């Protein structure tokens, strides 16, 4: 049975880890600026699902199983790197468009959700938090299925949704302000550099 202090320690650690900009946050902000709120929250949903998967691995002692699929996770990480580089290219070559438009197709939302999941599963920071740092924050031997379902899962969703929403809202403010051609070009190229930088960081960790 986990107590309130354990939950507080977990949510604080998760909140700090989530708020630190990484590939997931970079993609979240860039997608929110480029495609609007719905796409941003779709990508955030993918991020949350990925975190819940790693939380489940850690809580149910499946770290060994996760490690046994190292080849799969390596492929996911490289696929995430490729996706970030693709986004960087898209933003670098993007043309000016109507920032007030909020139309997003179902395929775009699906792509955003899938990319959020892929980036999270391939993010070394997420892997390190749940499979290495989480056991230091929580005594996983005391966590039951009920604790996982009724406490840790809702707490994880709440923390990630809160942090992600803050970033999305910040991105939307930028989206509304930067309507001019030059401002949009600078914004897109800054996002492209950020995406490429995140991909480069992941590549260095793979080498």
Automatic annotation (TrEMBL):
One of its GO terms (molecular function) is amino acid transmembrane transporter activity. Keywords: Cell membrane, Membrane, Transmembrane, Transmembrane helix. One of its GO terms (cellular component) is plasma membrane. Coiled coil: none annotated. It is a multi-pass membrane protein. Its main location: membrane. The chain crosses the membrane at residues 7-29, 41-66, 72-89, 151-174, 186-204. The keyword Cell membrane applies. Pfam families: LysE. It is found in: Cell membrane. The keyword Nucleus does not apply. This is Leucine efflux protein. It comes from Granulosicoccus antarcticus IMCC3135. The lineage of its organism: Bacteria, Pseudomonadati, Pseudomonadota, Gammaproteobacteria, Chromatiales.
